[in-house]
Write a sequence for this structure.
């Protein structure tokens, strides 16, 4: 049983984090949820994309009788369950497509090459908006 839980909506992240649901990187400047809780005396904290969390909550509340010992991560769901969620949560489910994974190092941060690409894209967007 959980002793406490805290969910903080982060409007703009200041550094990259790994989404615990889809295992993708939450980029600098993206929104995220910072979830912390204590269960059985152990403290846990993680970050997730808001839409990944929404997709998992949708699934787990629909099938709540099957989750008596806590909820799984989104990436742990069966393929059939993910396909059932695809219509309602297309962005979150598309992140689980591993063929399109961005280059990420073993620490879960974006590689220097990907950072350069992201910086160029942000600069292009700024120029388009001016």
């Amino acid at each position: 049983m959980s002793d406490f839980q805290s969910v903080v909506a982060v409007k703009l992240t200041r550094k990259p984090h790994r989404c615990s649901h889809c295992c993708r990187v939450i980029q600098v400047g993206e929104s995220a949820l910072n979830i912390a809780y204590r269960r059985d005396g152990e403290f846990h904290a993680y970050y997730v994309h808001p839409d990944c969390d929404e997709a998992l909550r949708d699934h787990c509340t629909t099938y709540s009788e099957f989750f008596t010992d806590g909820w799984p991560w989104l990436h742990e769901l069966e393929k059939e369950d993910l396909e059932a969620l695809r219509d309602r949560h297309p962005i979150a489910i598309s992140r689980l497509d591993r063929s399109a994974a961005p280059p990420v190092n073993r620490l879960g941060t974006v590689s220097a090459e990907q950072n350069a690409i992201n910086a160029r894209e942000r600069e292009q967007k700024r120029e388009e908006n001016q």
